[in-house]
From TrEMBL:
Keyword flag Amino-acid biosynthesis: no
Pfam families: COB_C, COBRA
Any one of the GO BP annotations: plant-type cell wall cellulose biosynthetic process
Domain COBRA C-terminal: start-end pairs: 226-417
Record keywords: Glycoprotein, GPI-anchor, Lipoprotein, Membrane, Signal, Transmembrane, Transmembrane helix
Protein name in the entry: COBRA-like protein
One Gene Ontology cellular component: plasma membrane
Source organism: Rosa chinensis (China rose)
Subcellular location(s) of the protein: Cell membrane
Membrane topology: Lipid-anchor; GPI-anchor
Transmembrane segments: 427-447
Amino acid sequence: MGFLLSKLTSLVTVVLFGLGFCIFFTSTDAYDPLDPNGNITIKWDIISWTPDGYVAVVTLFNFQQYRHIQAPGWTLGWTWAKKEVIWNMVGGQATDQGDCSKFKTTPPHCCKKTPTIVDLLPGTPYNQQYSNCCRGGVLSSWIQDPSNAAASFQISVGRSGTTNKTVRLPKNYTLLGPGPGYTCGVAKVVKPTKFFTADKRRVSQALMTWNVTCTYSQFLAQKAPTCCVSLSSFYNDTVVPCPTCSCGCQNNITHPGSCVVPESPYLASVVSAADKNSPLVRCTSHMCPIRVHWHVKLNYKEYWRVKVTITNFDYRRNYSDWNLVAQHPNFDNLTQIFSFNAKSLTPYGTINDTVMLWGTKFYNDMLVQSGPLGNVQSEMLFRKNPATFTFDKGWAFPRRIYFNGDTCVMPPPDAFPHLPNAGFRQYVSLLTVIMISASTFAFTYAYA
Ligand SMILES: *[C@@H]1O[C@H](CO)[C@@H](O)[C@H](O)[C@H]1NC(C)=O
Ligand SMILES: *[C@@H]1O[C@H](CO)[C@@H](O)[C@H](O)[C@H]1NC(C)=O
Ligand SMILES: *[C@@H]1O[C@H](CO)[C@@H](O)[C@H](O)[C@H]1NC(C)=O
Ligand SMILES: *[C@@H]1O[C@H](CO)[C@@H](O)[C@H](O)[C@H]1NC(C)=O
Ligand SMILES: *[C@@H]1O[C@H](CO)[C@@H](O)[C@H](O)[C@H]1NC(C)=O
Ligand SMILES: *[C@@H]1O[C@H](CO)[C@@H](O)[C@H](O)[C@H]1NC(C)=O
Ligand SMILES: *[C@@H]1O[C@H](CO)[C@@H](O)[C@H](O)[C@H]1NC(C)=O
Ligand SMILES: *[C@@H]1O[C@H](CO)[C@@H](O)[C@H](O)[C@H]1NC(C)=O
Ligand SMILES: *[C@@H]1O[C@H](CO)[C@@H](O)[C@H](O)[C@H]1NC(C)=O
């Protein structure tokens, strides 16, 4: 019977999980309710005309509140409208020169119709740098570090128009950050940018400026979940683990070696093996590289306290400048937070239930690879609002968690640790109905 029950539970979990998946992934819209104006804007400023083209400064601004671009960084592409070539670049480079055999003298930097541009790496010589360049394509999120949320490079374009009437704007912009997920709109000519000198005593302006806006959608990124949530509380001994197979299933038959056990004598050699860029996660029931644990720790008269722990299960990956977005109705009265930074996100002005959390610089802004140091933690103190506060019905647990901009898989609300001797629940949630019908179905299935 116990076996049957556990089988049933997993079936129900699969059904529920699938359901959540469908709801989440049917929207192809790039709209993020927690960051409705989030976008990456690419701006081209022509700063001089040349005999056969122009010199422009291209700047990428990451205007997203909490989504950053991590290593190995952004890749920008476009399609030239005519037969343009790139003579030269500073602070960035085209990954492929293409066929420049038509040029008898010094060949251009890139002759491709669809150039692909990447940032230069840190440590680039000064004469090849441009302001805000050379961070290996990494862009901070706007809230975490606006001074590192932009990147620029300079580009000299030939065989193009040489006046603002004859220049044709590049088409079909593409942006990888670093994987898929971004969709870019069409370039639009906008008011020329004004540049101020450092002392603000002189202003100059671009000869012509155009903008392109790119937005992110997790649907287009087609990413499997990379993070899950587990829960516990002082009032109930049960630790509710991450749902099984949140990020994938352990399958030794189809994916041998897809994860490693920490006790393995081969751990060190596997971790340092050739393919350093692919993830290598610790074998767990959830198989996620990241787990967020929310523990309701203490109850005071006027306050209550939560401990949040983020654990890295990937042996090959350090998450620098990680961030977490959490939603809970009591965030409007977050009184104190230890060792993390916090900023409330209020996309709709009035509802103040979402915060972004990130590490303290040089202390815990890097979540290091799996191991004894592979976690960061914080405690949060909330002031109770007597009108809404309760430990009943899992109210003390978060509604939604995002890690580095991607949703984390939550345990189903019915599984949240509940108060001992919780009375008969008169309110039957929709989820319960689904659970019941799903288990009825499962029973039928099991006995068929
Ligand atoms: C892009 O983001 C900026 C900054 O939040 C905002 O001002 C602008 O309107 C956004 N653009 C689009 C097209 O959403
Ligand atoms: C082109 O430049 C002229 C002046 O040189 C200016 O009047 C005009 O508005 C510019 N057009 C565009 C599209 O920037
Ligand atoms: C832009 O990209 C789309 C899809 O990749 C392609 O069908 C279209 O031909 C491209 N347009 C140009 C001008 O290259
Ligand atoms: C173009 O982009 C720049 C930089 O993001 C921004 O300041 C400017 O307002 C944008 N212009 C328009 C018309 O969107
Ligand atoms: C996969 O292998 C590990 C260790 O060898 C074992 O503990 C686990 O039960 C296996 N899982 C399956 C689904 O066979
Ligand atoms: C992660 O950071 C630690 C400490 O800085 C370093 O020793 C380790 O090599 C890094 N691991 C990876 C995979 O970059
Ligand atoms: C949201 O709540 C936090 C914590 O009490 C507070 O610091 C912040 O000012 C509030 N934000 C808004 C927009 O009301
Ligand atoms: C915090 O809680 C107090 C009392 O419960 C309430 O009056 C106040 O409006 C809350 N603060 C915010 C920013 O919502
Ligand atoms: C603790 O919570 C779990 C999960 O909701 C529940 O099954 C269990 O009965 C609770 N324990 C007590 C002592 O009420």
